[in-house]
Amino acid sequence: MAEPAPRRTPExxxxxxxxERSKRRLLEAAFDEFAAHGFAGARVGRIAEAAGVNKxxxxxxxxxxxxxxxxxQRSWLDAEAVNANPAVPAADTMMWYLxxxxxxxxxxxxxxxxxxxDDAPDVQDQADYEREQEWMRRRVESGExxxxxxxxALQLVFMGMTMMPxxxxxxxxQLFGVEPNSEEFIERYGKTLRRVLAxxxxxxxxxxxxxxx
Length: 213
Known about the structure:
mainly alpha
């Protein structure tokens, strides 16, 4: 006979809620720290202090600094998986990336740190890369992008167009005379991005002879 499951008491539920709150605070503080200093320059002591928790909780919940970094990055990848899948039109996905990077440029800064130092642990596994490549191939197959375009090259184009304003905000101010995260810039720049995507799509096929117009 199976043993009954342990009864959840109010004290147990409160401890679980406290644990989840502590994890969320640590992940948010880690995002700030890693974005400001990169993986090598980040300090777990500063992260714990900013989160208002004991530094030992980082080891308890995440194992080490690398584990905390990976958990922080994984939360971003989970959000990306919802908004970047092929069921969402490419133009809407691009606008999500643009708004996300401008409203919170920490993600772009993390990528720049990785490019400069190449010392951060790689959070994405092979399955993540293959999934992203498959999604882009499916967009090509559906006609969102022309069939003779390279899906891997399209990924780089896609990333570059959406990340550049957050990576170089001073250029946005010089060229447009507004802040990068302003609605004026997002609408103006986004309109051009949509036209670029439309130009990359397969042209509509002409109607067959004898068919009704």
